[in-house]
Amino acid sequence: MFRLRGRSQNRQSPETCPEGTGAAFQHNPFRHRQGYGGQVGGAKARPRVIGLLLALATLLVYLPVRHYDFVNYDDGDYVTDNQMVQNGLTWDGVKWAFTTWHSNNWHPLTWLSHMLDCELFGLEPGMHHLVNVLFHAGNVVLLFALVFRLTKALWPAAFVAALFAWHPLHVESVAWISERKDLLSTFFGLLTLLAYARYVEAFKVPGSRFKVFYGLALVCFVLGLMAKPMLVTLPFVMLLLDYWPLRRISEFGIRNSESRNGGSRSTLNPQLSTVLEKWPFFLLAAASCVMTYLAQAQPGE
């Protein structure tokens, strides 16, 4: 009895335990529920809190625009003198949005956005301004999420998003109703890059649905071009991201040398492979350039 009791005491003593207290804690079945789980949960929650704070601060900074009115520069073409837009969302309006060269632009998604505003709020300028502010706040959060996903650097990502959110150069796009097209195209452009980043991550995992993210990036890119054609440069931005921080230009050839079922296949020059992968994006950008040229060539309506 005395021997058994002594062994039991020695087994619990850190001095006689051959593995030490560290090993004993390592085998603790509750560690994930206690300290470690809290740390992981806190690490996941911190970016969400920062994103929420960035959005709230952006809303507060731009909240005064709810008192602003329409202006006589472009707002007439887009809203106040545009009867088709003022009619709200109708089948005739949708057809008009996709077929008109009004204001020498082809951006049907922008027209539909203004129609939805008129459908919901009429000609109340404050509400039109607030929709712009909401899009801008959403863009700030998307930019923060994108930079953080690409770099895994939390505070630099927060700084970039804050600079984007509150820089004076963005006041025009947010406080001017006619610049809805700028906010909309940025919104879908950031979604395109986020989907592309997810595609690159999924591409490394055998059996993953990486094609879904590729298709999602294409859809968001199309929507962005239909809001404002300035996104035609986005495929080149993807190539820059492939160089840094994704580092795909140096690794693409290595990953291409093996197929997902374990077999081998021929490889192309890494730079050429990366460019060819984006041919649908370049094709859509070229089509948008043609549409923009045709719209700008039309006589003013």
Please give the radius of gyration in angstroms.
Answer: 27 Å
Number of strands: 0
Taken in chain order, the helices and strands follow as HHHHHHHHHHHHHHHH
The helix content, as a percent range, equals: 55-70%
Strand content: under 5%
**Largest sheet: number of strands, sense, barrel closure:** none
Q: Which spans have pLDDT < 50 for at least 5 consecutive residues? A: 1-38, 251-266
Task: Calculate the mean pLDDT score and round it.
Answer: 85
Give the N-to-C terminal Cα separation: 103 Å
**Helical element count?**
16
> Strand pairing plus helix content: what structural class?
mainly alpha
Shape: globular
Note down, in words, how this protein is organized.
This protein is mostly helical. The protein has helices at 2-12, 20-26, 35-62, 75-80, 83-86, 91-99, 108-121, 125-151, 154-166, 171-175, 180-203, 210-225, 234-243, 248-256, 270-276, 279-297. It is globular, with a radius of gyration of 27 Å.
List the helices and strands and how they pair.
Layout: H1 2-12, H2 20-26, H3 35-62, H4 75-80, H5 83-86, H6 91-99, H7 108-121, H8 125-151, H9 154-166, H10 171-175, H11 180-203, H12 210-225, H13 234-243, H14 248-256, H15 270-276, H16 279-297
Helix pairs in contact: 3-8, 3-9, 6-7, 7-8, 8-9, 8-11, 11-12, 12-16, 14-15
